[in-house]
Write a structure and sequence with these properties.
Blueprint: E1 4-11, H1 20-35, E2 42-46, E3 51-56, H2 59-72, E4 79-86, E5 89-92, E6 99-101, H3 103-120, E7 128-132, H4 137-152, H5 156-166, H6 171-178, H7 182-190, H8 194-210
Helix pairs in contact: 1-2, 2-5, 2-8, 5-6, 6-7
């Protein structure tokens, strides 16, 4: 298989969860919603222990998925992410739960371990890290550090508003759901949320351009 992006996710402060079974269901609901329309190779699913995993065709889809997840998660749930770009190999089984191996998964493991180390070492806002055997790694991680820092500065309401904006909801609908004026949503969209919203749109545009168009239907 050509290079793809493996994504590993683990639960932050999992031991603090009062009801693990309920939290697991809520995580899975968020992951399913976040993955809609991204054209992932493998949708997010529970893995071992506190982990989830997914497989994206390329980096833009992986980063778009992670942003959606972070915006949709409720305030009491949090995930850490490692993205590895490389190859995958089938190690056993078949179907969506097939056991996979390869450099993409190895690099994703290195990435999530590095994200955890950075977070434990004083970078409390760090949630995402990227690994690849190429020259893009430093640039991508610079972007991810800035994005993680920006997300950490948003209130729960601002995250919900940004989730609505990136999900295509109108400002009027978001304002009604949050009990604020449309002007407040508009002001957020052009101020604190502007860079995050613009970055997300660029990622989505990139994935849309790469996705093949459906073949034209023939006449009967």
């Amino acid at each position: 298989m050509a290079d793809v992006c493996a994504i590993l996710m683990d639960i932050v402060r999992s031991r603090d969860l009062a009801d693990r079974a309920d939290a697991q269901r809520r995580f899975e609901t968020v992951l399913a919603e976040a993955a809609e329309g991204l054209g992932l190779i493998a949708a997010p699913c529970a893995a071992v222990g506190d982990e989830f995993q997914a497989l994206a065709p390329a980096l833009p889809e992986a980063l778009a998925l992670i942003l959606r997840i972070r915006l949709l998660l409720p305030e009491d749930l949090d995930l850490r992410f490692g993205v590895g770009r490389g190859r995958t190999d089938l190690a056993g089984g078949s179907g969506p739960r097939a056991l996979q191996d390869g450099s993409a998964w190895r690099l994703a493991r290195e990435a999530i371990d590095r994200a955890r180390a950075l977070q434990d070492g004083g970078g409390a806002y760090v949630r995402t890290r990227y690994r690849a055997d190429d020259g893009d790694e430093a640039l991508v991680n610079a972007f991810l550090l800035l994005r993680d820092h920006a997300l950490a500065g948003l209130s729960p309401r601002q995250r919900r508003m940004l989730a609505g904006l990136t999900g295509g909801r109108t400002q009027a609908r978001i304002a009604a759901a949050e009990g604020v004026s449309q002007a407040a949503v508009s002001q957020f969209a052009v101020s604190k949320g502007a860079a995050l919203l613009a970055a997300h749109r660029l990622l989505i545009e990139t994935t849309s351009r790469r996705r093949p168009r459906p073949a034209a239907g023939g006449g009967a």
